[in-house]
């Protein structure tokens, strides 16, 4: 990977701006091999979740890479998330320990509440604060939180989330939420940055891609990076994993960034956080 870049989180921890996502990738040897391949290519951030049902294979790939001398554990940044059927204080503590056990790891670098759900996240955040204050995780954050949810965390709790991981791509730029996060020193991380492939035939993006002899996916990921957005594209194909990493050898102009911003349609590929019924 060319010149992997890092962003400093609000607690002083450095996180890679480009990570490897495994949403909807089935548990098994194919995923374990893909994780190891991503690490071999140069990825240092791996993102999974309790609900994905694939933490064991993610952990297998990580540990194989470590055991083969490809990387040291402290060079990796591993994220998982607690699911919404277990957001009591004790259930969250138990979920964290279960994730560690499945992955065969002593700690995670980042642990997130996956969805705010029906405002059931307060006890879960208290548990995350406990895990963090006891030094069992390097950073804690949230996923799919709206401004109202973030307001409550900022007003009612001691530890500020370092990350809000949200659906974000050129058709859903989330400007107001991003601005709120920026004002409060919370980093934004994009899930589904390529909109599950829906953007890969867009004519405006295609024109920009042709100027740089890059793919549309690379243009979108570069757009994320230039906005200071952490991004976690998903693929199990080695050539695509490598391609997604090759975004540090060019730079979009301000005009190109604005043109991509203008593609926004407030269009989601996943559920709206305020409408997702748990």
Automatic annotation (TrEMBL):
InterPro entries: AKR, Aldo/ket_reductase_CS, NAD(P)_OxRdtase_dom_sf, NADP_OxRdtase_dom
Annotated catalytic residues: 52 (proton donor)
Record's keyword terms, sorted: Oxidoreductase
Residues binding substrate, per UniProt: 114
Pfam families: Aldo_ket_red
NADP-dependent oxidoreductase domain residues: 29-264
Residues carrying the site annotation Lowers pKa of active site Tyr: 81
Domain of life: Bacteria
Lipid biosynthesis among keywords: no
Single GO molecular function: oxidoreductase activity
Membership in a protein family: Belongs to the aldo/keto reductase family.
PANTHER family: 2,5-DIKETO-D-GLUCONIC ACID REDUCTASE
Protein name as catalogued: Aldo/keto reductase
Species for this entry: Cytobacillus horneckiae
């Amino acid at each position: 990977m060319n010149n992997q870049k890092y962003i400093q989180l609000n607690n002083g921890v450095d996180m890679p701006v480009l990570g490897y996502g495994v949403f909807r990738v089935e548990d098994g040897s194919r995923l374990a091999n893909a994780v190891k391949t991503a690490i071999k290519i140069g990825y240092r951030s791996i993102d999974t979740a309790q609900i994905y049902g694939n933490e064991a294979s993610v952990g297998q790939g990580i540990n194989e890479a470590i055991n083969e001398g490809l990387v040291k554990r402290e060079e990796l940044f591993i994220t998982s998330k607690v699911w919404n059927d277990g957001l009591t204080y004790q259930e969250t503590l138990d979920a964290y320990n279960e994730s560690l056990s499945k992955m065969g790891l002593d700690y995670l670098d980042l642990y997130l509440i996956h969805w705010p759900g029906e405002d059931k996240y307060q006890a879960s955040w208290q548990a995350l604060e406990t895990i963090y204050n006891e030094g069992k995780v390097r950073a804690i954050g949230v996923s799919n939180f709206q401004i109202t949810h973030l307001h409550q965390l900022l007003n009612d709790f001691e530890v500020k989330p370092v990350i809000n991981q949200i659906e974000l791509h050129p058709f859903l730029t989330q400007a107001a939420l991003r601005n709120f996060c920026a004002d409060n020193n919370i980093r934004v991380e994009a899930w589904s940055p390529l909109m599950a492939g829906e953007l890969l035939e867009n004519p405006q993006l295609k024109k920009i891609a042709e100027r740089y002899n890059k793919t549309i996916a690379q243009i979108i990921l570069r757009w994320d990076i230039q906005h200071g957005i952490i991004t976690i594209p998903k693929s199990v194909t080695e050539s695509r994993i490598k391609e997604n990493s090759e975004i540090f050898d060019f730079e979009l102009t301000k005009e190109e960034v604005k043109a991509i911003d203008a593609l926004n349609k407030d269009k989601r590929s996943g559920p709206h956080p305020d409408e997702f019924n748990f």
